[in-house]
Amino acid sequence: MTARARKRVLARPLLRRIALCSVLLIVVAPFGAPQSAGAEGDAELRRLYESGQTYADFLAAATHRKDMWERNSAAAAVPDDILARARRVGGPMYLLAIAIDGCSDSANTIPYLAALARQVDGLDLRIVRPEDALRYQMRHLTPDGRTATPTVLLLDADFNELGAWVERPRALQAWALSAPRDTTFMAQKFAWYEEDAGASTVEEVVALIESVSARADDVLQLVTFTFLPGASAEALALYRDEALPLYRQNTDMVSFRAFREVESPVPLDLLVVSRFRGMQGMDASNRALRELARLAGTSIGALYGAISDLSSGHTDEFVRIIPELRTGGALGSKRLTAFLRYQTTPGDQERFEALLREHVLPWETRTGVASETGRFMVSDGWHFLRMVSFNSLEEYEAWWHAMRRLDGFRDLEAVLAREQQIILGAVADLSVR
Q1: How many CA atoms lie within 13 A of 311 on its CB side?
Q2: Fold classified for 218-432
Q3: Lesser CB count within 10 Å: N end or C end of the chain?
Q4: Cβ atoms within 10 Å of 156's Cβ, excluding its own
Q5: How does pLDDT run across 147-175, given as a tens digit for each residue?
């Protein structure tokens, strides 16, 4: 289908087109996280958090960029829909911000996170200086390899680290990484912050909070595409320009992620993963998408039909997440995600789960590996899906070899009839919440 034909099929949505970034700055459960993390809590992070300043105290003591801090603090407002999402998650959770008053990115983001924390029961914010928290900044470098302020850690009720948000919103970071550092750089950055008014910052942090709060009824829909020769770019444009504006408005869709092949034993061009609160949430999402598309003057059926016309084939799979077999949000939280499918020998599904729970999950928790495990509801003979996130193939290989040295790994292998490993890279501008 040509671009002109696509325009005839799909009326231009009357929605704001947002150019997302090519770099993902939200990370979950970093590799190499504190060894003490676990159910008993992280004592070091607890001490660091409790030593931090409240936002009111930090603001009162600020001497650099004082006008900027006070202006943004006075104007800080959280959009109602984002506030509702944060309140639905519940707490307690803690935001530990590593920041200084002289940092312009901190001055344009932290006031909005403070406003979020003030309005959400069970969410609290403290601020510490970089010299007291350098080891945590080192775990969450920017895409160009720097430590940065602000680095905002998300902590659970026991002060275990759940994830981090680094430096500035995705769209701004994507621009900053390629923009010349000339005399107009700061003026353009400040103009972006002024127009955005904190909305991107709070949306991304709330999305992080949502991503680490999986529930027992979470369901994933995985759709794998192979496209006709030369059709991939047009299919991605359909998702980016037509589907994502609808997905962003659809609060019944918990999140949406897209991935491209890095290493795969089977041909695939695109894998898209949607998360819902159970099958009822999926049904509610489908109804909402139909209505949102109607209001935008288009049709969700026409949209999906146009994407299908560009593919030579696709498969649908459904997975129900097992919360107790989860160390953190693994979908797109780092540059790469390993999708590991397992078929157990007859009658050994419970044994497989028990071995993961006893041997693999404690080790992944100690080493800070973000993983999720679910049971296939609809698939081609597979029983379990594990998703594990990494920053590089080298990091994945280190995990792979270390897991094979675990006590119990031979028992795990013994209950497997077959397995499949696919390494995919996140498509950062095809991501919602």
Answers
A1: 20
A2: Alpha-Beta Plaits (3.30.70)
A3: N
A4: 18
A5: 999 999 998 888 888 788 999 998 898 89
